[in-house]
Amino acid sequence: MSRLTGLSAAGKATFTALLVAGVAFVVLEVAGLTDTPPIPPGLVAIVLAAGLLAAVPGRWTPVAGAVAGLFNLIVMFAVGAQERLVEPESALDLVAGWVLVVALAVASVAGTAAAFRTEEIDPVGKD
Q1: Which of 66, 26, 61 is closest to 43 using CA atoms?
Q2: What is the CA radius of gyration of the chain?
Q3: Is 1 helix (H, G, I), strand (E, B) or coil?
Q4: From CA 63, how far away is CA 14, in angstroms rounded?
Q5: pTM (2 decimals)?
Q6: Local confidence band at 124 (pLDDT 50, 70, 90 cut-offs)
Q7: How many Å apart are CA 18 and CA 24, to the nearest integer?
Q8: DSSP letter string over 50-104?
Q9: What are the tens digits of pLDDT across the range 57-107?
Q10: Which residue spans traverse the membrane (predicted)?
Q11: CA atoms lying within 13 Å on the CB side of residue 21
């Protein structure tokens, strides 16, 4: 049985948003539209958070998704990468950049909501 079946709707939204953000990040990397280190810390944070959600049961696990999302959003604005959202080099840069930002925002909000939910979720998915 998949660990994801035990997640709340917000937890599943967090996981999905992290997957989408990871794909958008890789698309930007492969297209050469980002200036990141060979092993990008933002992508590592996204992958680790998604892995935690998929493998580790617990009420507070979705916080990893919120932290990864906030980390990436803060770094994006700290290094000035938000310019590609309003002055993109290409259509791919525009679309992948906005998909990344929206997915990171969803992961941040949904991860927080999942961690602070009030109903109890059965960890094996048998509500």
Answers
A1: 26
A2: 15
A3: coil
A4: 9
A5: 0.87
A6: low
A7: 10
A8: HHHHHH---TTTTHHHHHHHHHHHHHHHHTTTTHHHHS-SSHHHHHHHHHHHHHH
A9: 888 899 999 999 999 999 999 998 888 899 988 999 999 999 999 999 999
A10: 12-33, 39-56, 63-82, 94-116
A11: 32
